[in-house]
Amino acid sequence: MDTYAEQLVIKESNAKDTIIRVLIIAGGFILAVAVFLLFSILGLLPIGAILTIGVAVGAYLLFLQTGVEYEYIITEGELDIDKIVAKRTRSRLLTIKVENFKEYGIISEAKDKDGLTVFMVSGKGYSDYYADFTHKKHGECRLIFSPDERMRSLIEPYLTIK
After folding, report:
1. What's the rounded mean pLDDT across residues 63-67?
2. 151 burial class (0-12, 13-18, 19+ CB within 10 angstroms)?
3. Do residues 135 and 95 lie in contact, with contact meaning Cβ atoms separated by under 8 Å?
4. What is the pLDDT of residues 28-52, one digit of tens each?
């Protein structure tokens, strides 16, 4: 059975993300004004203007880095999770065979366990699910993710959990 699907989810913003965004905007504004005023006082207005624009562009690029998306890719029973930052930079977070899931279900039914490495890659707009498994590199792990109905329908046939 050939299976392949992709799902893109946008990371939900929390209070920490909001604070970081506000600090980037405020810090960028204060630094840009300070640079402009300093170079104006020194009589180097053209250099000050260029540096002020540079600070503003730097703050904007830093602000973009706070935008995170996750992409789930299921291929023949193998689940890949990628993290996409600023819609430009992609990095593979995890690859796991679905048949290696020890537990799987909706997150509200998950039992608390100590000593797990948790991969929180959930997004807004979907129910959160969990999957517990053992990974060669990370040991005992829990994946918390937000698969849509189509993705779940492609994952579930590969589950070996009884």
Report:
1. 92
2. buried
3. no
4. 999 999 999 999 998 898 999 999 9
The token pair at 85 is 């930052």
Residue 111's pLDDT is: 86
Q: CA quadruple 101, 106, 107, 110: dihedral positive or negative?
A: negative
What pTM was computed for the model? 0.81
DSSP-assigned letters across all residues of the chain? ---EEEEEEEBPP-HHHHHHHHHHHHHHHHHHHHHHHHHHHTT-HHHHHHHHHHHHHHHHHHHHTT-EEEEEEEETTEEEEEEEETTTEEEEEEEEEGGG-SEEEEGGGPPP-SS-EEEEE-BTTS--EEEEEEETTTEEEEEEE---HHHHHHHGGG----
pLDDT above 70: percentage of residues in the chain: 99
